[in-house]
């Protein structure tokens, strides 16, 4: 398979308290649909979306995880292998905002601290019901050093941008990791040790006392004494290995 035929696949987990709009976000992005009816996610849900990024095919595998604590032991298992993460809270749910650092820690415990993350404030179409100030959300993003998006799944605002950003961050991280890996070279096999001697060694010194063989002189290769000695003591020296 040619390198240009390889497909990039990214596992993205969407985490946060229940009812913040995680399932709706994935449905909107993958299927372009939105429903007002709330249906609690039991354990995990999964959708895929094929996109083109920098002329390369990318398959996003989006995992929607339940936000209720009774499913915690189940959902944590699905964090493993994640390559990007959405931390979501709702404009109308103060507890979901205050739980963001807890969700971040849970994900990083399973996959490490270097996973690309993004902070998302959903339901900004309900600003009249807001219980989280915009400045508070921006300060949290600065504290956690995360990119911050304010989204409305209902209005399809900034949803696509969230996943485009995570795709870009994953691609950048992959390139950086590849550049940091030490180059591997095949080991050099030492066939033997040889002494170089002149066929006319007695004539090798010219009138100026130089030890450089004169032009036209033949150079022969002979095994070194240490090589011959070690070989004679080796009972398997005449064996051939294939």
Automatic annotation (TrEMBL):
Magnesium found in the keyword field: yes
Coiled coil (UniProt feature): 117-147
GO biological process annotation, one example: anatomical structure morphogenesis
Region feature Disordered, mapped onto this chain: 173-242
Record key words, sorted: Cell membrane, Coiled coil, Cytoplasm, Cytoplasmic vesicle, Developmental protein, Endosome, GTP-binding, Hydrolase, Lipoprotein, Magnesium, Membrane, Metal-binding, Methylation, Nucleotide-binding, Phosphoprotein, Prenylation, Protein transport, Transport
Compositionally biased residues, Polar residues: 219-235
Compartments where located: Cell membrane; Cytoplasmic vesicle membrane; Cytoplasmic vesicle, Autophagosome; Cytoplasmic vesicle, Phagosome membrane
Membrane topology: Lipid-anchor
Similarity comment: Belongs to the small GTPase superfamily. Rab family.
Name of the featured protein: Ras-related protein Rab-23
Source organism (scientific name): Phallusia mammillata
Gene: Rab23
């Amino acid at each position: 398979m040619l390198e240009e035929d390889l497909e990039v696949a990214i596992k993205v987990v969407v985490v946060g308290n229940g009812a913040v709009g995680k399932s709706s976000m994935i449905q909107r992005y993958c299927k372009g649909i939105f429903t007002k009816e709330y249906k609690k996610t039991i354990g995990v849900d999964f959708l895929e979306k094929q996109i083109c990024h920098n002329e390369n095919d990318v398959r996003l595998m989006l995992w929607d995880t339940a936000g209720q604590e009774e499913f915690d032991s189940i959902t944590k298992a699905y964090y493993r292998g994640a390559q990007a993460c959405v931390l979501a809270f709702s404009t109308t749910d103060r507890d979901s905002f205050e739980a963001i650092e807890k969700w971040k820690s849970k994900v990083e415990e399973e996959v490490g601290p270097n996973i690309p993350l993004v902070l998302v404030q959903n339901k900004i179409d309900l600003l009249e019901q807001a219980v989280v100030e915009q400045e508070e959300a921006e300060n949290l993003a600065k504290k956690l050093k995360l990119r911050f998006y304010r989204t409305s799944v209902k209005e399809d605002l900034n949803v696509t941008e969230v996943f485009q950003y995570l795709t870009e961050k994953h691609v950048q991280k992959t390139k950086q990791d590849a550049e940091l890996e030490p180059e591997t070279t095949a080991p050099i096999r030492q066939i033997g040790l040889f002494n170089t001697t002149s066929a006319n060694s007695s004539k090798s010194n010219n009138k100026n006392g130089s030890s450089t063989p004169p032009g036209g002189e033949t150079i022969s290769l002979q095994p070194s004494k240490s090589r011959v000695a070690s070989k004679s003591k080796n009972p398997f020296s005449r064996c051939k290995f294939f």
